[in-house]
Amino acid sequence: MTQTVCHFVFAPSGAGCLSQALKIAGRDDQVISFFDDLSFGPINPPDSSLRAKWVENELGRTGWDDVTAESGRFWRGAPSSDQRTVAWLTRRSAKEYAGFLEWSWRRRDASYEVVDLSEVKVSHQPEHGPPRPPAFAMSLGMLHPDIICRHRLWELAEPLQPTVRERYRDLWQQLRSENAPLRVIDGDELVSAPISFFDSLLMSCVTDNWRKVARVVGQALVLPMDDCIIGPGDLFLVARVNSLVENGRLEIRGKSALEMHASEVRLPRT
């Protein structure tokens, strides 16, 4: 009897891309997605109601209970004893790295394999024009299903060495104990950071002229890509723009920066 495979992915977009790739390849593997973003908010304990309240207070977003409810289903989605367990890791995304570390922490001594995309390069073959040079895969959610399928990335799965597994556990234990507002990528590691960590990045995207908040946030989303790092999502960045407005570091035209398509910001004029 052929052993089935259960894949754990730490971003919904990546889970969708992987599911489509496996379907193209004619495989019936199971894919389970984690919905929460443990790169921000309290993680010790990772209580769903506590996190939802933090997101409401700090980011101005209500309804995060729905996200944590989906995450609860993720934690209950344990593979059966006759399934191979494969986790998809990237150390280039704080969201996915943090999700993996919590998952690994909860797995304790249970066996699993890992596809680590952090240093994997893939080739792109556009319909028109010359082929592009290989580039870092970075994250499943950034890969077209055809690329995942063509490179058969699931075949990169391998067990973690005990020393590596222990290092990941030690890292998450440290981050849990610090329980900072943010966890960010620093080189090849995940480190704690203050909630204002990305404020300077956002300020660098603002000028003396009015700019849509959506444009400022969009630019701040792209800039980390120059270092092959996936930055925070728009939910967090919009909230920080709003905080910068409230603190007088930016001027606003519109009701709230949280309405990023209907408001504009600029540097204060003296």
What is shown here, in short?
This protein is of the alpha/beta class and 270 residues long. The chain has helices at 12-24, 48-59, 64-76, 94-107, 145-151, 162-178, 199-203, 213-222, 234-246; strands at 4-9, 30-33, 83-89, 113-116, 121-124, 132-136, 158-159, 182-186, 189-193, 211-212, 251-253, 264-266.
In whole angstroms, the N-to-C terminal distance is 74 Å
Beta-strand portion reads 15-25%
Structural category is alpha/beta
Q: If strands are numbered along the chain, what order do they take across the biggest sheet?
A: 2-1-3-4-7
SSE ordering: EHEHHEHEEEHEHEEHEHHEE
What overall form do the CA principal axes indicate?
Answer: globular
How many domains comprise the coordinates? 2
Describe the biggest sheet?
Answer: 5 strands, mixed
Mean pLDDT: 92
Unreliable residue runs: none
The level of helicity is 25-40%
